[in-house]
Amino acid sequence: MSRAGGLGRLRGGPSGQAARMPFVLLVVALLAGGLISLLLLNSALNQGSFQLSRLKKETTALTDEEQALQRDVDGYSAPDALQRRAHEMGLVPGGSPVFIGPDGKVTGTAAPAEPPPSPTPAAAAGSAPAAAPGPPQSAAPAGTPGSAPAGTPGGAPAGAPQAGQPAPGGATQSNPTSGR
Asked: Is 147 strand, coil or helix?
């Protein structure tokens, strides 16, 4: 009888339901823990998404700022802007260049830089409208008095600074490609 009595207790006695209660509580606790973990994981992913969106906007703003600064640099380094600023600072185009060869031999003759002609009193009084600040442009053909100096590359205006010409203060700048 011991077998039959033992089977009766396992099948449905009051002690069998008491043994199921911890298992049910364990399953409910695991489900609740899983849901809370999913909620925390989802919140962390959303936070990362918001941070990524903010960083993308910041990157776009910084890229726009970089492009604006690059446009400013390009504008300041344009040849006409450099010429205008050099003229405003009182720089003048240099004379003929002098080159020193590797053997120490000096080629060419130095000529002093000549300042551009001063503006006429009528232009200084403002009676004639000025097109743009800078040295006066001559309409005479090349080689005539008052035109661009001989050797000015590409027909650049007479007031344009050129490589290989004396710098302010009398020092001569050399252009490595013009002497070869």
From this structure: coil
Partnered with residue 172 across adjacent β-strands are 166
Using only C-alpha atoms, the chain has a radius of gyration, in whole angstroms, of 44
Alpha-carbon span 160 to 52, nearest angstrom = 51
169-to-88, 137, 172 alpha-carbon distances in Å: 17, 25, 9
Mean pLDDT taken over the chain? 72
pTM: 0.37
- Max Cα–Cα distance, the chain, nearest Å: 139
C-alpha separations of 36 from 29, 32, 39, 44 in Å: 10, 6, 5, 12
pLDDT of residue 5: 52
Q: Report pLDDT digits (tens) over 69-84.
A: 999 999 999 999 999 9
Check: CB of residue 165 under 8 Å from CB of residue 97.
yes
